[in-house]
């Protein structure tokens, strides 16, 4: 027996070829502390099964779950100057951009795509919080404008999934100018009479909230999403008062009229498909299992959006802009 060939060498090879165990096999729920297997969480659209906590989801994954057959075409957006202010901080702005692009495989924080929702053409834009906190800079502003213009040209509804920490400080005033710029684009799109639906995801704050995110025809929010301009701690320190419990959450804003509906991520396709159908004067569609069925009025949309809530209560207090028949 050759102990070197039969014993030592196999052990050396196994040691050299040993693969490190990924650190993200299990993901901890921030709300309940529950440990969820990565693949299970991914298959559940990044919603923790037991607690229902909606975790952040990548832009392309969200579009894949949203459009029919996970098929969509990314829309080219205009190029903008890189690092126009030659910003220097702890890390160069150009290095930050390079790292964010490597991490997300996106040019910037907003991705625009064409696709079909229940067989109808639709244009959508998604902000990815993993790209520098979904901050609004020149590139992101140009992408939103390009998405609105694309929907206007194709005569399709426009759906925006917002997620942002606010303006991108590395671009200074040029970043702040994206607020009026995108607002003008929204107003130009509104002249067509086509529906503009905004979905607030966690978090949506700062200049994004102060511009195009609050200008939708319908405002939908994912459960538990933080929505506001300044953060709760900043507001408390400014006004020197304790804020109500749950202030700036999707549910609180729904109760106080700032958000029309709070919709679970699994129901988002159905609700938006029904709403855009109503706005476009086409048969609204709700999906039951894998087979679509017609929704004839806003009553069914409201009930589908709110899930387990009592139908009569919802119809007595419908979401803003909803007219129950």
Chart the SSEs and their pairings.
Elements: H1 3-16, E1 26-28, E2 35-37, H2 38-43, H3 59-66, E3 72-74, H4 93-104, E4 110-117, E5 120-127, H5 138-154, E6 158-164, H6 172-176, H7 178-190, E7 196-204, H8 206-209, E8 218-221, H9 232-239, H10 250-255, E9 261-262, H11 268-279, E10 284-288, E11 291-295, H12 298-306, H13 311-316
Parallel strand pairs: 5-6, 6-7, 7-8, 8-9
Antiparallel strand pairs: 1-2, 3-4, 4-5, 10-11
Helix pairs in contact: 5-7, 11-12
Quick overview:
By secondary structure, the protein is an alpha/beta fold.
CA radius of gyration is 23 Å
User: Helix/strand/pairing class, anyone?
Assistant: alpha/beta
Largest sheet: 7 strands, mixed
Fourth-tier CATH superfamily name of the largest domain: 2-enoyl-CoA Hydratase, Chain A, domain 1
Give the distance, in angstroms, between the N- and C-terminal Cα atoms.
87 Å
Instruction: Indicate the overall shape.
Output: globular
Instruction: Tell me the domain tally.
Output: 2
Please state the oligomeric state of the protein chains shown.
Answer: single chain
Poorly predicted spans: 286-296, 308-325
β-strand amount: 15-25%
CATH class assignment of the largest domain: Alpha Beta
CATH names the topology of the largest domain as 2-enoyl-CoA Hydratase, Chain A, domain 1
* Helicity range: 25-40%
């Amino acid at each position: 027996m050759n102990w070197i060939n039969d014993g030592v060498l196999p052990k050396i090879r196994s040691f050299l070829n040993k693969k490190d165990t990924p650190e993200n096999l299990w993901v901890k729920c921030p709300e309940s502390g529950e440990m969820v297997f990565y693949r299970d969480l991914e298959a559940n659209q990044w919603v923790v099964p037991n607690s229902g906590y909606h975790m952040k989801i990548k832009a392309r994954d969200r579009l894949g779950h949203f459009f029919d057959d996970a098929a969509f075409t990314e829309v080219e957006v205009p190029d903008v100057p890189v690092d126009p202010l030659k910003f220097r901080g702890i890390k160069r702005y150009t290095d930050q951009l390079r790292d964010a692009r490597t991490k997300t495989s996106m040019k910037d924080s907003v991705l625009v795509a064409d696709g079909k929702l229940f067989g109808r053409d639709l244009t959508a834009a998604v902000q990815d919080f993993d790209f520098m906190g979904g901050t609004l800079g020149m590139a992101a502003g140009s992408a939103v404008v390009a998405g609105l213009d694309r929907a206007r040209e194709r005569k399709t509804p426009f759906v925006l999934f917002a997620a942002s920490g606010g303006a991108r400080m590395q671009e200074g005033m040029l970043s702040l100018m994206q607020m009026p710029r995108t607002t003008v684009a929204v107003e130009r799109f509104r002249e067509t009479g086509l529906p503009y639906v905004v979905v607030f995801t966690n978090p949506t704050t700062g200049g994004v909230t102060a511009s195009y995110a609050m200008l939708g025809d319908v405002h939908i929010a994912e459960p538990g999403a933080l929505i506001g301009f300044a953060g709760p701690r900043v507001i408390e320190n400014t006004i020197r008062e304790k804020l109500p419990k749950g202030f700036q959450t999707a549910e609180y804003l729904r109760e106080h009229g700032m958000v029309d509906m709070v919709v679970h991520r699994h129901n988002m396709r159905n609700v938006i498909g029904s709403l855009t159908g109503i706005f476009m004067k086409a048969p609204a569609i709700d999906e039951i299992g894998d087979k679509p069925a017609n929704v004839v009025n806003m009553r069914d949309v409201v009930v589908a959006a709110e899930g387990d809530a009592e139908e009569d209560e919802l119809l007595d207090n419908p979401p803003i802009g909803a007219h129950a028949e």
